[in-house]
Amino acid sequence: MAEIIFGIDHGNGNMKGNNVNFPCGLVRYTSEPGRFMNEDILEYQGTFYTLSETRMPFKADKTVDEDYFILTLFALALEAKSRGITLSGKDIVLGIGLPPADFGQQAPGFKRYFMEHSKHGISFKFNGKSVNCYLKDTFVSPQNFAAVMCYKASLFKQYRTVNCIDIGDGTVDLLVIRKGQPDLSVRVSDRSGMAILRSEISNVIQQNFGIHLESSDVEQVLMQEATILDEEVIREIQKMAEDWMQRITNKLHAYVPDFRTNPAVFLGGGSLLLKPQIEKSPDFKYIEFIEDVRANAIGYEKLTAMRLQKR
Amino acid sequence: MGQIRVVLIFNEDNERQKEIGEYLKSQKRCKTALITELVYAWLHKEHKGASSYNNVNVGVEELKRQLLEDKEFMQQLKVGINMEGESEKEQEEVMNDGMDMDEEMMMAGLSMFENDF
Lengths: 311, 117
Hints:
Largest interface: A-B, 31 and 21 residues
Number of helices of chain B: 6
Order of helices and strands of chain B: HHHHHH
Largest sheet of chain B: none
Low-confidence stretches of chain A: none
Mean pLDDT of chain B: 68
Mean pLDDT of chain A: 95
Strand content of chain B: under 5%
Oligomer: heterodimer
Radius of gyration of chain A: 20 Å
């Protein structure tokens, strides 16, 4: 039977698939909850789950508990729905990823996490319907690398060195591509992702203006969407985002002394939120963005398909 | 490479929309090319691809009806798209998804990571 490949990006803030993107937030129920607003309900081993906009705390090791496995089941179910296919009776191959800095150390354990959880098959209920499938294999790919190789190959052929900066919710990851190949001596993963910036902004605005901002309020301002917040508050948020970008750049300068000498590719949800600040930054001369936040998931899927083909 | 993203949402309760949505979804490749050909023919009805509809008195709605009923036109369109799909498979995939990739470069880089375990 032909297997179905699913590329899934287990982010700290969001789960991404080829077609889906949802926050890493779960609510657990011991008995079946009422279905509110057509909310998706997943039942796994007698516990019921729904997705939540409230994200889980940062997990340096995503295999410490079942949360990321449950989120993966949601991703599979939603992705299958979006592709118009059913999972039951199918062989599945997962394409997943880890930051280049963690790849060597964590990849075997990350793969084992999914294979162990699925060793007796994957069985769960999604919105009351039983899903039974088999996880045939799991391939781990390096994050950032998977995305930039799918979207920026021409840039790597044109320029000898390209710096790729993935700003996520939990971490900022730097990967340097030289002559089309990863420079494995530079693998940086710094915990200065957007979650910390959002939290700092909320605290400062609460202290200085007495206004309680939620994550989506901060993102709304950063994305330059319509808002009724005072100009003063907006300026403060933008100033903090600018300082944050400067802080990230300063940290990365420890590995790449000058970003103005080679092109930089920015990717990840954080890059899109900080786009105006990145574009304004005098520390970069040539910038390209990967606008699709699912780029890593798409890359994992491509790399998995290529590995299967080569078998 | 610049790219324009357009998300199409088809209402499943509407039979026609459902049919078109499902058809487009079943096409693994060529979606962008198919839509481009159709809309281009629609907009530039004097263009050779839709020369039989070169009548300025025909309204868009009428043109739409004629195009959808014209099996020959649809067949030509389908054949054209399939031919393009066969001859420029790789490039089309890249264009459709707004991707820019080189499989050899990817696999070479990946093996560097894997050998670094």
